[in-house]
Amino acid sequence: MANPKYDVIVVGAGSAGAALATRLSEDPSRRVLLIEAGHDYPNIDELPDEIRQGHATGADMAIDPDSDHNWGLTAKATPFYKDMPVPRGKITGGTSAINGQVYLRAIPEDFDYWVDEGNDEWSFEKILPFLKKLENDLDVTNHYHGNEGPIVVRRYQPDELADDQSAFIEAATTAGFPHTDDHNHPASSGVGPLPLNNPDGIRWSTAIGYLTMARDRPNFTISPDSHTTRILLNGKRAVGVEYQKAGSSIQVNAEEVVLSAGSIGTPHLLMLSGIGPAKQLENAGITVVNDMPGVGQNLRDHPSVHVRWSADDNFSMPDVKIGPQKVALRYTARGSPFRNDMIAVMRWDSPKREFMMSAGLYLAKASGELRLNSNNPFQQPALDYRLLNHPYDLSRMRDAIHMHIEFGRHAAFHGIFKDLIDPLKPDLESDESLNNWMLKRVSTMHHISCTAKMGSQEDTMSVVNQYGRVHGIEGLTIADISIMPDCPRANTNSPAIMIGERIASFMMAQKTEDQKFCELGNDQVDKRNS
To answer: Is 158-193+303-361+388-441 in CATH node 3.40.640.10?
Structure first.
């Protein structure tokens, strides 16, 4: 490949991709092309309200047929719930541009598991500098936090909480859970304000935080409204990508290709390009380049079930434009050996005059899969989450539902809650009846991940090594949360951006190493490669 136009092509300008492309383009000698299927709004003032304002959520956009900023994906959650909306951002900033802005970090034990899976470059000690580098925490200054990064983080103060949120904290502390002022401290547990990346109510996406720094660089190009359809391969080396823009098919070459298309888009692109489970590819009429059974498998997310109450007739509901999630309880399930394997969040729905306590389950035993529907790049792959498809997941969720109902009886909610409206008494008569109710109600916290997991090449279900490089394919790297071995005990906003930063650091270090060997001459290069 002679004189490619770009040194690096990054597919996907989302949470990880925008961060990675921004860092790579800090080197003025590296020509970076960032390809995004959705729209780009170069100026914050140009952003539509549904993107700019933090009270508008991706879940709202998922069911809005007129939204241009969502992929419109659906999934099978359980055999009883087959059309679950899967909101994913189709815009620069990706899902960080439509999400709930919860900036909750994973805990150190999550990264211990990554290390145990053969990824020692991802220990908590090694990734902490990148967590600090990406954040500007307005509330906390200590060894564990950054105060100069591109993503602004804040917490609501006690006098800013709605009445139901203050009542939730009181109910949790009465039940014996500790109070925490910083959920992002590595040793934290209990109830307290959520860290949020929404200063002044603005959803602070990676498009705002990162791409703003890079837009004027002469070596950096963004191509929006460009749907990548396949990776261009020369044998088992990636040499570029093909994408559709304004009705035209365009091919562009580069020395390196990085997929940051997310946990749905990345495995889908791999399979469309002949990299994935051979039988699936053959059935879709795709030539197999590299048989990788792990592509699309190990689909992980956080199951979530809402307990709902009607509002007291005399209670004035909060303004719909005030963020509905400000506090959370992180705790350990009864009998669990894993710290903070559950989360509870207090929410409201002002138009319906309802309140919800959302029970979220971390470290689910059950996992799902992503499969090809066809070789058409514009047809979404099949998503089967298999939520709560394990007795232990059901047991933990049942306990959480009972705990939430008990919270709702606390005196602090008198005058706020009226009646428990879901689940009803018949749903609570037995474990079996509650299981049936949960399987019909369960959704997710919208943290789909782990569909191209990292691990050693000896693990036949791993897709990339710990540096993000795809096994068996040269010049192809993945940088998004699809590479996580398991979904951590946190929202995936923070881990996604951190992964973009971490993979960028690996790529920059590799370029420096390559330059050093080139300076030594061909003999030394030959020795290194032998």
So the answer is: no
